[in-house]
Specification:
Layout lengths: L2 H6 L26 H21 L1 H21 L4 H15 L7 H19 L9
Length: about 130
């Protein structure tokens, strides 16, 4: 994972597509969703709810504590994600001291970039405007 992708993984809102991995699940629910798709959607919802809580000053303290806990979990399993750990700690510091709302602008910018990137993957033809 590159340095830029490690840092931007801490910013922005995530969709279930952000959590896709190479494994394919064989079990599907009634609507045809696999267990992996459901887990990806739940992970995205959890990540986004922590982001939203971080914007609110009092809830930002709890969000910061959760993020520090994630850094401790990352230190045990993945030692090559040093920039993601640093970005999580910096974000947690902002949120703990009530500055989480400052991160709304970078979150929206990264989310818009991801949305455009995902749309470009799903569309094989270039986007044209009709005048």
């Amino acid at each position: 994972m590159s340095i830029a992708s490690q840092i931007t993984s801490v910013l922005g809102f995530h969709s279930p597509l952000s959590y896709q991995d190479s494994t394919s699940a064989l079990v599907h629910d009634q609507k045809g969703n696999s267990d992996a798709e459901i887990a990806e959607a739940q992970a995205a919802l959890h990540f986004n709810s922590i982001h939203i809580a971080g914007y609110i000053p009092i809830l930002g303290m709890a969000s910061a504590i959760i993020r520090i806990g994630k850094v401790c979990d990352l230190s045990d399993s993945k030692n090559n994600l040093i920039f993601a750990k640093i970005a999580l700690v910096i974000r947690a510091i902002f949120e703990f001291f009530g500055g989480g709302l400052v991160l709304l602008i970078p979150d929206l910018l990264v989310s818009c970039y991801r949305l455009n990137w995902l749309q470009s993957l799903s569309c094989s033809c270039p986007i044209t405007r009709s005048t």
